[in-house]
Amino acid sequence: MTATALATTPDPGQPPRQRSVRGRPRCDKSRQAILSSAYDLLVQAGLAGFTIEAVAARSGCAKTTIYRWWPTKGALAVASLLEMVEVAAPIRATGSARRDLESLLEVMAGTMAGPMGRVIASIIVEGQSNPEVLETYCTQVLQPRRERIREIVRTGMRSGELPTDLDEAVVVELLYNTLYSRLLIRHQPLDEPGWTQRLVGAVLGPANAAAQSVTKPLRIHSDALYPA
């Protein structure tokens, strides 16, 4: 047997050697650096002043690396936003559909009142002339959270906590559209104390309405949302 064979033949008395996995920690670190840098630039300049070149310079990663993971600046912008949304506005279950909706809307409103709101607004504005950006935002950020509200409403209807005649699609539209109206038009502050609770109450009705057997139409009174 040759010396080479002796060197490469495994010892049957020893456990097999594990192959080291290389590259993944560095890839993860680069990815986080890119997403963090991208979000910081979005906060500073919005999507209109956002470029892959600037992200590459800030993160220290090559443009080819960025383009390999995100083919367009819109895709990178939405990815960086989604990364921050999962941290800043997590979805938590409280065991009550009404409290879940109040908590979710309160967290989202508070988050949108800060720098993240400016990022979201810039993406929506850019999306008016760039359908790809808007579609990516809707698919990855907006629709999953709208669906979460639908799930909460359906759960509350099944448990009897919420009226069984609620139109879940209308509930989603009323809650989300009011939130985005404050974000984009700025006619009322997003961080106004208690307004999300009033909104949920106006859409769902009083907390004890679910126990009533009489079906009542859904009516929204502006005074409930915008008191004098």
Explain this structure to me?
There is one protein chain. The protein has 228 residues and is mostly helical. The protein folds into two domains: 26-73, Arc Repressor Mutant, subunit A (Orthogonal Bundle); 88-207, Tetracycline Repressor, domain 2, CATH 1.10.357. The chain contains eleven helices and no strands. It has helices at 3-8, 24-45, 52-59, 63-69, 73-88, 97-112, 115-127, 131-159, 168-185, 195-204, 222-225. Helix 6 packs parallel to helix 9 and helix 7 (115-127) crosses helix 8. The chain is elongated.
Q: Give a short account of the largest sheet.
A: none
On the 0-100 scale, what is the average pLDDT?
Answer: 83
General shape: elongated
Low-confidence stretches: 1-8, 209-228
Task: Note the total helix count.
Answer: 11
CATH overall fold name of the largest domain: Tetracycline Repressor, domain 2
Strand composition percent: under 5%
One letter per element, helices H and strands E, the order comes to HHHHHHHHHHH
Cα distance spanning the termini: 94 Å
CATH superfamily of the largest domain: Tetracycline Repressor, domain 2
The CATH class of the largest domain turns out to be: Mainly Alpha
Domain HTH tetR-type: 28-88
DNA-binding region: 51-70
Protein name: TetR family transcriptional regulator
InterPro entries: Homeodomain-like_sf, HTH-type_TetR-like_transc_reg, HTH_TetR, Tet_transcr_reg_TetR-rel_C_sf, TetR_C
List keywords for this structure.
mainly alpha, Arc Repressor Mutant, subunit A, Tetracycline Repressor, domain 2, 65% helix
Write the layout of secondary structure elements.
Elements: H1 3-8, H2 24-45, H3 52-59, H4 63-69, H5 73-88, H6 97-112, H7 115-127, H8 131-159, H9 168-185, H10 195-204, H11 222-225
Helix pairs in contact: 2-3, 2-5, 5-7, 5-8, 6-8, 6-9, 6-10, 7-8, 8-9, 9-10
